[in-house]
Amino acid sequence: MSEPDRDPPYLREMFTSQSNLYAGLATVIASAVLSVPMGAAGAAIPLVLFGAGEAIAALFVPSWPGFRAKVDQKYREKRREALQQRLESELRTRVKRQERNWEVYARLQELAANIGSLPAPSGDLTISKRDIERVQDAPGEYLSLWSASLSMQDRRRALNPDDLERRIRAVEADLEAERGDLHSLKRALNELVELRDRSFRLESRVAATGAALLSLPDVVEELYLALGQGDGVAREGAHLGRTIQRLRDQEEINHAIADELSDDLPVFDKAASSRASAASRRPTTQSTRN
């Protein structure tokens, strides 16, 4: 079960921010200093002023777009790290370390860690903060796709279409000959037909997930190279624009796969997918990285 999709505690983040804690410490020091010549009355002055300032700040600061954006990013990073740790731990117990996908995952982690340190594109070329975060989300999405692919392969082995067809024909023969409880036979036939149809749908999902596992690392690598070669490839604005659009399209594909599989495969967090999908559609300011 996933946690409810809640907004971050903006008010708590304001009170526990480093600048606010420093202000509180300065207030305590000022109160102690004033208590020497003025006694309790002098000690109370900084405390009253600090309390009044906190009350006023609590009315406005949590609603400021800049503050909320900073807190939102902090919590996105926490969710990203938690997702990667959980999925990596699960996969370590299911897959050998020699599996090539681990190498791909390590490369995605390297690209995600370094994407923010690349020089900003030259001229009019820009890349938004959200696009940078898409690259940073890529390792977690790759693990999600990989885990889903393994689960679907297990289910595909359990749902053998040929075996299901034989069972369906056998039940249909019993129904036609009116052997046994007809009500139970009809119910069994409906369940078998549903399982057969589900096995057919599973084949298309396996193919889509496999394609996403191949294309996600490719598009992230291409974007990284386009940004890193500022005097070459990235000079062509059309190329960088196409690469960024490929990254956005890939994210939409991954979310579509997640939405389709979330009811059957618990590895996909529907609430997290909805949050990410909404964030990807939210307008963001296009800005070059400084």
Could you give the topology of this structure?
Elements: H1 10-15, H2 18-60, H3 65-92, H4 100-114, H5 129-158, H6 161-177, H7 182-228, H8 237-261, H9 270-281
Question: What does this 3D model show about the protein?
Answer:
With 290 residues, the protein is mainly α. 77% of the residues lie in helices and 0% in strands. It is built from nine helices and no strands. The chain has helices at residues 10-15, 18-60, 65-92, 100-114, 129-158, 161-177, 182-228, 237-261, 270-281. Helix 6 runs antiparallel to helix 7 (182-228).
Can you summarize this structure?
With 290 residues, the protein is mainly alpha-helical.
Given as residue ranges, the uncertain stretches (5+ residues, pLDDT < 50) are 231-235, 266-290
Radius of gyration: 28 Å
Q: How many individual helices?
A: 9
Strand percentage lies at under 5%
What is the oligomeric state here?
single chain
H-E string:
HHHHHHHHH
* Count of strand segments: 0
Q: Characterize the biggest β-sheet.
A: none
What is the structural class? mainly alpha
Helical fraction equals: over 70%
The whole-number mean of residue pLDDT values reads: 78
Shape: elongated
Distance between the termini: 40 Å
Question: Any descriptors?
Answer:
290 residues
